[in-house]
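Question (not urgent): is this output format expected?
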Amino acid sequence: MTTPLLSIVVPCYNEEGSIAALAARLDAVLGDYKTQGTEILLVDDGSADGTWPAIEKLCAKDAGVIGVRLSRNFGHQMALACGLDHARGRRVLVIDADLQDPPELLPAMIKKMDEGFDVVYGKRRSRQGEGGFKKASAWVYYRLLGRLSEVPIPPEAGDFRLMSRRAVDALIALPERIRFTRGLVAWLGFRQAAVEYTREARHAGETHYPLRAMLRFANEGITSFSTRPLQLATWLGLLMMMVSIGLLGYVFLSWLLFDTVRGWTSLAAIFLLSQAAQWLMLGIIGNYLAVMFREVKARPLYLIDRTLNR
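Got this back:
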């Protein structure tokens, strides 16, 4: 079987309204690359709309389009992992189906990779179609992750990226069950470069990352690439010990210098501060235990229901 020059991995979840437009724009961009061999992997992450029938239609028209349907909704990162596992190209482009990341950036990415880079990622210059809260929270998150992470993770960079074969092979060899892909790619090292672009509004439908999903994703990114919250718990414990010693000194001086039997204020302060510190530390430790619990089970990242054209 001939190894294609380029694989394009597209995780899809309820993207019925974008599939046809995505295929048309990819077809226009690929152009001459098709003569050198290309494949498009559309991974349906258990969609509840007409995404899979739309993928079936594309696969029937073009043998270079490969459809993979997961047995249920495993999440964007797992669908992405499935696509990377099955991509055969010497270079692999990862792009979402919502067309917020423009396929037309591919030639610039390829040109950059030709300079000797193993990873070329898209860096958002600006975001269209997103509210002020989404933009502000993303800005805060990327800066916080950059501060906490033990590996430099580029800010304003999502999963939209072009990777060499050796970078993809190294990525899929990593054993993590919690796949924070942009962090894992940063951990790989190799030579990496950015190509700036303007992120467009969604072509159709609504975002699949509501606030709760965003918070869960942010939590996975931090716990996967930083132990500093655990270190914070230690320092907070030391701080609370010092505060408690100070409060005990205040109680002793009050008993020595003043005629008072009052003590509920200082006792309440000590109790509340110590309880708050304990709950915070238990929460941080519990967060990491939950990550360990998910990892040690070592379940498959995904299960495949059907494939087309493979």
